[in-house]
Each structure stands twice: as C-alpha cells, then as structure tokens.
Amino acid sequence: MTSLLEVDDLRVTFPTRTGVIEAVRGVSFALGAPPQAVVSAKKLAFDGIDLLTAPATERRALRGKRIAMILQDAKYSLDPVMTIGRQIVETLRTHEKNVNKAEATERAIAMLEAVQIRDPKRVFDLHPHEVSGGMGQRAMIAMMLIAGPELMIADEPTSALDVTVQLEVLSILDKLVSERGMGLIFISHDLRLVSSFCDRVIVMYAGKVMEQLKASELVSAQHPYTQGLLDCMPKIGADRHPLPVLSRKPEWAA
Amino acid sequence: MSELGQTRRDWLLSERPASRTQARLGRVYVAWRRFTANRLAFLGLLIIIALLVVAALAPMLAPFSPVVGDLKTSRLLPPGAEHWLGTDDLGRDILSRLIYGSRWTLYVVVLVAIIAAPIGLLVGTVAGYAGGWTDAVLMRLTDIFLAFPKLILALAFVAALGPGIENAVLAIAITSWPPYARIARAETLTIRNSDYIKAVQLMGASPIRIVLRHIMQLCISSLIIRVTLDMAGIILTAAGLGFLGLGAQPPLPEWGAMIASGRRFILDQWWVAGAPGGAILIVSLGFNLLGDGLRDALDPRSGEK
Amino acid sequence: MTAMLSIEGLKVIYHGFSALKGVSFDVEPGESFGLVGESGSGKTTILRAIAGLAPIASGTIAVNGKRLGARRDKAFYRRVQMVFQDPYGSLHPRQTVDRLLQEPLAIHGLGQGEQRIQQALDEVGLGSGFRFRYSHQLSGGQRQRVAIARALILEPTILLLDEPTSALDASVQAEVLNLLEEIRGRRKLTYLMVSHDLAIITHMCERLMVMQSGEAVENLDVSQLAAHQVTRSYTRNLLKASAGFDRRTRLRP
Questions:
Q1: By the CB < 8 Å criterion, does C240 face chain B?
Q2: What is the CATH number for A57?
Q3: Which of A6, B137, B204, C136 qualifies as a FRET site for B293, CA 20 to 30 Å off?
C-alpha cells in the first residue's frame, strides 16, 4: 500500500532575534489512507510531503482541496465579517470552479448538516460571532471538508471546547474518517483524548519523535517521557499525593 | 567584537539578571538593538543628534551674527564662498540664522512635547480607566478641541494671548494634546480589563495608583512614538504661525518667520526662503524616521516576543 | 464553627444577563472546595463576585462570619487573594518579578520587603535567579508560580484559584498542583478552586459543587464522585466525558 502522506526527516527552523529555533528536528512518519495517525506534541509547525519542491501555485491548489487543516480556535480562524455560509461557498468555488452559486449553497448547507448542525439554513447566514464555540468549530470543519480533502490536519481542534462538546466534535471527525476514508493527523497535548480517539500515536518532545506506537498500547508506553506524561495527570478515584512529576532528561532533547 | 564587548553583551542579554539595573539596562539594550537594525531610523536619530549639537554650539558654529547684517554690501547675496547659504534682504548670513534658529525649533518642539504629552496621557488614562461620567466629560472636551483645525485654533489663541514664540508654543501645546488623550484612552481601555490590572485591584490598589503606576507605564511607549511622529507637524505649525507673523517676532531667526520674510524674493532670490524650508524638511524627516524606528523598537505588542 | 467563606443566594447580573442565579454554599476553614462546570456555568463569576470584580445583584458573602459590604476594604485583600487562569495575561508585561512582588507590599505598607520577596520566591520554588526577570523571560509554569507568590506575599487565609493549570502542559500542571497542595498544607489555607476538569477537582478538593448555566446542579463529596455516586444526569455526562472518547457511544445524529 502506498502512503497518503510521507514525511521523511522533516526539519523546521525559525530564525529569531535571539538565535535559530529548531522547532522540528528530523521527524519521519508515514500515513496510510484509512487508519489515523497522530502527532502529539506540545508545539509543532510543519509543512510536509514533497511540498518542499512544489511551486507555490501547486501547493495552494493542494491546500483546501486535498489537504485541509482545522485550527485550534474557530473564533480566530473564521473571517469575522463574512457569514459562515459565504466562507464555505468561497472555499468550495475556489477549488471547484464549475460549481454555480445555487449548487454551492446547497452543498454548503448539506455539509453543515453533515457536521450535525441542527438548523443549517439559519447557521449559513450567521456571522462567526453569533455562534457558540462548538458551533464555530463545526462550521470550520464543514468549511474544511467541503472540497472533500483526502488528508485532514487538526491542530488541537477541541481544546478550546467544553468536554461534552469536545466529544461531539470528535465523533463527527471519527465518522468522517471511517465513512470517507480520509486521513487524519490529530495534534493534541491531551493524551487521554489521543489514546481513546486515535489509531497510532507519535509522541514528540523538543522537536523530536520520542516514540511511535499504537494508541491502544499507549498505556504500556516504553519511553519514560510518554510514561511520565501519562503518569502525571490526576485521575478520578486515584489518590496520589503529591502527583508524580516528569523529570525531563537532557538526552531526550539531544 | 572584543572579548570585553562580548561579555558585556552577554551581561545585558542575560535571561537571569541579578539586579534591577541589569534587568532595566538589558531591556533598553534589546530595544536599542532593534532600533539600530533599522538603518533609516538610525539616520533619523543622527539628524536629531546633529540638530542638538548645532543648537548647543550655535555661537561657535555660526560664522556671522544672526541678527546684524551689512545692509550696504551684503544684501541678498547668492550662496557663495563667504556666505554658504547666501544672505537675506537685511544682509544677514542665512546659515548663521539657520544655526541659531535650530535653538528656537528645539525650544518649540521640546516645550510642546513637555506640555502636551503629559496632559494627553493624564486625560486619556483617567478617562479610560474611570469610564462613565468622567470619561464622557473628558472625551467630549477632547472632541471639542479636535473639532477645530489645529492652525486656526492656535491662531485664535495667539490672537488672544498676543504674538510671540512663548504664546505660539502654548497655543500649539493646547491644540496638540487631544490626539494623545485619544491614544492613551484607547490603550487604557484594552489594558483596563486585563488580568494583570485585575490582579493589582485585588492587591487593594487605589485607582490613582493603578493609573499612575500600572496603566501609564504601558501607554507611554505608544505616546512617545506618536509625539516623535508629531514633531514634524509641530515644527510646521510653529513655522506656519511664524509665517503668518503670529509666532516668533523679528529679528528672532525662527525658521518659519524666515520663510515668511523670504517669500517676497522667492522668484529671484530663492535661497532666502529655500534654505529655512530645506532645514525644516530635513529636521521633520529626521523626526519622522526616528518615530518609525521607535515604533518598531518600543511597540509593546512586538516587544514581548 | 463558623464557615470560612459563606455564600448565600448570590446573584450576579451583567448588563441584563444573569450570570449567577442565586447560589449558596459554605467553605469550612482549611477546606478545599471545588467548583466544576462548563464555560458559561458561572463558576468563575463566583470567584469574581467574591473578589469584588463582578456586579452583585443580590445575596450575601461572608468571610469568617463577617458579612462583606458593597466595597472591599484593604483588610479584605489581606485575607483573600486570587490566582488567575491565564499566566500569560495576569502578569504585567513591563514589570520585573521583583516589581510585581513589591507592589502588594507597597500598597499595604509592609516592611522587610527584601526578606518577604526572597521568602515568597523560595516558597514557590523559584530561586533568586528569577527575581529580576520580566514575565516574557519566564515559561508558563514559572509565570504561574510568580502569580502564586504574589498572592501569598500578603499572607491570605483564603485563596481563590481560577483554573490555575488549564493553560499549562500536563507535566507542568502536576508540578503546580503539587505546589498548591504543599502550600495549603503548610499555611493551613482555605481554597476555593474552579475547574472544568473533574479529575483536577477530585485531586485537589474535599467537596465540590457542580454548576450549569448559573445554577448549582449538585453538591458532592469527592469520594462520592470518585465512586460515581452522582444523582444528576448532567454530572454523569461530565464524568463520562472526562473518561475520554468512546467510539462505541457515537452521539446521536
């Protein structure tokens, strides 16, 4: 099977006033079509595939159409002066030029319905500030899905949401992955969520991959960093005072 | 860089300063580095420093007297070896007048800044922090001042107070604080609801203390930037008043007044008005470049990265 | 025994919006009491109302049996202090740690500044190396430690904690929670802690109140919660949600 996405020795550096920051230092992984892979990290900036050599126009055509990204907070990533509907229609018509307005509107409303917005016609005409955080995040997902991407990158898509809403959004994503066969990269710092939601997990620290494993095996992780992260979270019913703390070993970052 | 310079740089950029002074100097140093990275801003600073030096050393630099000229032999001479920038209709050396005039330019600019900026800062922060009636009253007052064209209002004040450079300064100061008040108020409104101000309220700090010690500190940098950018406008307003005969009175070598008197010969003896015009242009440009540089160096929003 | 903090029928109305609709509870001296709920449930509003930062429409708040008036006096702020949620927003961007800690001492006219600041920094596990740093030179966890030091420097008896770790990474969260527990034990403080995370509340508190849209849903002992002995469906949902995602329980279409 060929992979949908291949990342080989990715390095991302940012030059800053105080020196060069190496955000990603040689990360490699592959993502097949059906199963989900996960990049769990505290900080991650990346732009992968063979995109490195692709010209800007080609990359732009790829973005939104084949690769879509959900950002952390819909409040800041939706355009505040455009209705939600118009933003979705715009995305669609950018990538599928032959779609006329009526059809685009119809598909946008259908997509809003697909992300379980109860009254899609009303939401279509609302501005981002008129909807709740969960609703905004769903609208964002709808916008990202409208062009039918094969790969979705979700950067902490639920961390700005309440726990119950969080689960609803996750179940929408889960459904889309299993029904459409879309690949999903789910970036999160919440190990509890990752272990219950994803198939495979890459644990990152200081720009490097600590380990790669199946999500179901996360509890029995080998790397002390992963163990430490799992261990230091308070759990309901566990009486551990004080909580074990993670001592960061310098060799992890080496 | 020498070894000593290197250690001094490390000391300034230290992430763990050991004293209040080191922390403060480190901050200044970072701002300075950001400022000097901008070449044009540095040029602006050089122009302003040159202005300061010229003003301070005017008697030494000026080749002739700024007020006494030789009416018999040296009226309206073009620029040449003896009079680099020529002479005016009273036979006075224009270069010398420009050099002495820099003192008056600085005098106007500094006095206006000293009077207008604090008034604006105080009005704006108090209005922004207090809100309600205080805000409404102070801001409507500001609106009234803003509604008049600056030069016209200054004209009215000078007409009431009598012509003269001190009154011109006062008039310009009175007309230039409202924009500062607006900036300070806008800034205060965003700061006032932040958690760090809430935290100080929770310490039991009085409103006066919060405004003076916590809010003003954050408004000052954007105000400095704005005042610097306004310097050019202040110089021009002062020159405008001088030009209309309501600012500096003869024989004071104020640049605006010099243009006014050179106006009559502008077609035949262009240097009489052109030289002070060029001086105003260069100094205004200097302040503008400096202000732009300061914006990059001091902007609180870019400053925390 | 009089309650350390007693809240009776507290209502808060912001511009016509009822953020709190009559909430009552008591916190005993030395107790750690948790407030749990989702955003908009009014849990943070309670802390703000106690601190005098929210407009109280009706109801009473009493500290150690003494009813609070409309205005908080200086003595109040020496008894009650607060730690804010966002360590990036709660420290003045242009002040050093030293200046931040000096401020409360100056306001209350307390002497021995040097000694108190040193002691406060030591107590939160920041050495003197941090004293002259600006907040942008600190990590999130270090900032929150500074915020805690600032709250402690006035030697309060009640600490209001508004999601003190929600902006921090899991490993740093554990460190800060441990620090808060340690301080409570040492200083015999009373905590009123707000969180959306049931696990944190069960870890830190003895009793808790679940809130939803400005009202109390139920009061529980932590042991009851740990044993899943909850009576209301809302609480049960929260408990279920905090266990993580479950692919089998697909939510209704």
A1: no
A2: 3.40.50.300
A3: C136
pLDDT in tens, chain B (305 residues): 456 677 888 888 777 777 888 888 888 888 888 888 888 999 999 999 999 999 999 999 888 888 887 777 778 888 888 888 888 888 889 999 999 999 988 898 899 999 999 999 999 999 999 989 999 999 999 999 888 887 788 888 888 888 888 888 888 888 889 999 999 999 999 999 899 999 999 999 999 999 999 999 889 888 988 898 888 788 888 888 887 878 888 788 888 888 888 888 888 888 888 999 999 999 989 998 998 888 878 764 444 43
CB atoms within 10 A of CB C99: 18
Which of B176, B190, B183 minimizes the C-alpha distance to B237? B176
C63 vs C7: CA distance, rounded Å: 9
pLDDT at C139 exceeding the cut of 60: yes
From CA B171, how far away is CA B157, in angstroms rounded?
A: 6
* Residue A78, domain member (yes or no): yes
Q: Are strands A208-214 and C5-14 parallel, antiparallel or unpaired?
A: unpaired
Nearest CA in chain A to C38: A162
Q: What is the DSSP letter of B214?
A: I
Assign A43 a pLDDT band (cuts: 50, 70, 90): very low
Q: Does domain C31-53+73-241 have CATH number 3.30.530.20?
A: no
Using CA atoms of B21, B22, B28, B29 in order, give the dihedral in degrees to the nearest 10.
Answer: 150
Query: Does B34 touch chain A if contact means CB atoms closer than 8 Å?
Result: yes
Which B residues, 176 through 195, put their C-beta within 8 Å of a C-beta on chain A? none
- Is C32 at the interface with chain A, CB within 8 A? no
Give the mean pLDDT of A94-104.
86
Instruction: Give the max Cα distance, chain B.
Output: 77
Domain that holds residue A100: 5-220
Number of domains in chain A: 1
Asked whether residue A18 is assigned to any structural domain, the reply reads yes
* pLDDT for the residue A45: 33
pLDDT higher than 50, residue A21: yes
Write the residue in C202, C203, C242 that is nearest to A163 by C-beta. C242
Residue C16: helix, strand or coil by DSSP? Answer: coil
Burial B128-144 (b: 16+ CB within 10 A, else e): bbbeeeebeebbeebee
Partners for B (CB, 8 Å, 3+ pairs)?
Answer: A, C
User: Does B195 contact C90 at a Cβ distance shorter than 8 Å?
Assistant: yes
Distance (Å) from the alpha carbon of C143 to chain B's nearest alpha carbon? 12
- In this complex, is the C-beta atom of A17 within 8 Å of any C-beta atom belonging to chain B? yes
Amino acid B248: pLDDT: 80
CB contact under 8 A, C225 and A236: yes
- B232: closest CA of chain C, how far (Å): 29
Q: Does C97 or B165 have the greater pLDDT score?
A: C97
Q: What are phi and psi of C81, to 5 degrees?
A: -130, 165
Distance from CA of A21 to the nearest CA of C (A): 16
Whether A249 maps to a domain, the answer reads no
Among C94, C143, C161, which would you mutate to test the B interface (most chain B Cβ atoms within 10 Å of its Cβ)?
A: C94
CB contact under 8 A, A17 and B13: no
Tell me the domains of chain B and their CATH numbers. Answer: 1-37 (no CATH), 40-303 (1.10.3720.10)
